Each structure stands twice: as C-alpha cells, then as structure tokens.
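From the thread on structure requests for the teaching lab: each student submitted one protein with a one-line request. Submission from student K.M.:

"Model ROK family protein from Glutamicibacter halophytocola, tokens only."
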Amino acid sequence: MVVGAGAKVLPRRDHPDVESNSRKPASARASGAGLGSNRDTTRQHNLSTVLTLVHCSAGISRAELTRLTGLNRSTIAALVGELAQLGLVLENEPDQRQQHGRPSIMISPGPGVLALAVNPDLDAVNVALVALGGSIVNPVRFHTVAPPSTAEVVNIVSAIYTGMATSLPENRRVVGVGVAVPGLVDPADGTVIEAPQLGWQEEPLAAQLSAALNLPVTCANDAIVGARAQAAFGAGRDVSDFVYLYGGASGIAGGILSGGQLLQGATGFAGQIGHLLVRTDGANCSCGSAGCLEAEVTREELLRATGVPSGQAEDLESTVLGLFESGNAPEALLEILQRQSRLLAVALRALVHQLNPSVFVLGGFLRILARTMPALLEDAVRVGGARSAREQVAIELAPLGEDPVLVGAAELAFTELLADPARVLGTASPAPIDS
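Reply posted by the TA:
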C-alpha cells in the first residue's frame, strides 16, 4: 500500500546515527540501560544526548528525558538549564497529557541556532536557513538558465546569505553550512568528485564556500542527506531498514538505512540507485552506461508531456494529478507514466531482494508515479523471492518539494553542534560574513 506523507514532517525520538533493530519507538528501545551517565566526566556526552533527543522530537518532557536517558531528575534539570542558557532549547508549559503525578515541563528546540542549507541542481540553487528541530526558515529558490558552475553556486549562495544575515536578529547565530550535491562527494574534504549532470569534476566546493562565507562547510550526496532527514524526522523515523529514492532535475539518487545505520560504502559512495540497470537496450546514461534507472525515468519527459516549464517544476505533480484524476490526461502522458512506473518497479524489485528493506520512501517526481500507478509499484515489492524479503514492505511518500534535502543538508552542519554543543557555541560567531 502506498502511504502519502502529510504536510507536516513527523518527528523522531532518536537520531539516524543511533543503531536500532526494530520498528519500536525509540523511547521503547532506549528504556532500561539508559542513554546517559551520571558521572561528571561525561557532561559533554550528556549534553549531546539531551540536545539530540530534543532536536529529533516535536517536544519532549523532562520526565521523558529522565526516562530515556536514565539520568536523575536533578541532572536533567541542570542539563536542560545549560542548554537553555546556550539558546539551544526552550522550556515551555507543562505537558498536560501526563496522566499521573505533577505535569512535567516540556522542552523544545530553540530558534536561536541555525544552519545554512544549500542544494544546487540543474536549473536552480536552493538555499535556506534551518533551525534545530528541522524547521526551515525563509527558503530561497534561485532559478538558473543553465546548470551552474561551482563558482556561480558560491556567488549565488554568498549573495543570498548576505541578505539573510543582515536581517537576522542579534540573538540568532549560524553554526555552519551543509550542502546536498547531486553527485559523488569525497567525505574527507567535501570535494565534488563528479556531478555529471552539472558538469562538475574534482571541484573543491566545500573549501570554496567556506572561504566565501567564513563558516565551516560540509558536503554530501543529496540522496544521502535526504535519507538522513527521513530517518530523523520523516517517513523513515523509527525504521531500521529503509531505502530513500529521490527524483529531481539531475536524475535519481538513493540513500539506504540498514540496521539503523546509513550505508556509506568503502569510500562513501554507496546508494547510487539511479544507476541500477532497468533496461538492457535502454538510453545512454551520464555515467557512460546505458539503460540506467535515471536515464529511463526522468522528470524532463514528464515536463514535456504536460507542457510545464522547467522553471515551474514545483507544479508538475499537481498538474499531472489534475489531468489524471479528471480523465483528461493525454494518451502520451498515460503511456509515459505506465512505462516509467514499470521501470521503477524493476529497480524496487531488485532492491527488495538485495537489501530486504521494510519501507521504500519516494521523493521528488517519483511521488507522481506512486500516486498515479500505485498497483505497479506495490506488485513489484510483493512478487517473487523469499517471503521474508517481501512481507510488510511499504511504499511511503516523502513530503513534496525540496524540504527533505534541505533539512538533511542542515543535519550535516548540525553534526558537531549535537556532539558537543558547549564547545561549538563557544567558537561559533554570529551571521555576518566577509564582504
């Protein structure tokens, strides 16, 4: 059954880097031994644990923090107080849902610490500030007439960020930049090894952006960061094994969570799902092969069939669904939807056998195929193979738009903050950049 995601990105009570082995809520998995320690020497660990729990929830009570971490109430109160002084959390009204005893104070992510999220693509550069908790602030989509070079991306992001920084209140600070790149990225230094659709090769994007913005910059593959966002806040929350596929202007990419861990591969390049072979006599792909998923299933073909300009690609899903549901869809469009869905089904079937996921999360224009041809995709994950590899495999939809990718990019920038909040905020500077 294809399950559509709502407009609100759902919270998760754990973190994608914390291993889990079931679909039980993180709160259930964490009970018992606890996540924290009462020793003074582990203050950094305890601050990190509490902040991460708050970050990955829509709001969590002090009582729940006490239960999840195994720390005593006075220690939790002290840790929350320190995080509040740093501007990382807010203490709110008591949780009135509590059935027994005195209602516990609710803790939520504070709005004062931000990350700059960047996602360059074939026809646009997406930029946004993202607060703790995955809340996107003033997103900007800067359309380009051609695939931007890395120098153009740096100039565009610098100009947008300068405008954002000058309008930020004094009590807001930006701790870093996360970049989601549609290509292969060296995890060691953020060099874009190859982004074929953009024409990039061996581009030191992280170093270039860091020099321009005077902020630390982390780059990663766009689908990897999208999967990270889904694991923390979205359709993959509380799921140990899922596959995230995102279709955009530059192709189809994937992120894989297995045993609670994002698969990186030996050199960080795992998850190139767009290059799965789905048709032996297929179209040439940018990777040099032919018949790859992203060469056969493209957003551009749907744009041409509907007449939606590439600059208005955000309207593609509503346009296709409107035509489809009204019965006015041209025969050519229906043929494209059926053919692309069949080829996507080939990839999903292969992934069921290879990875044994419990959920597929489809984002970008792949949502359209799931919504118009659900039976083709559902049959693909339920037909053939060992029963254990296919039972209870669900297909869910990521939220519409670039939000998961931008939220995932921000998670890159928040990594060090979540690991050691006191140290990072001791060295972080307010938003202004060098002119």
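TA comment: Confidence is low (pLDDT under 50) at residues 3-33, 429-435. The domain at 113-224+408-427 is CATH 3.30.420.40 (Nucleotidyltransferase; domain 5).
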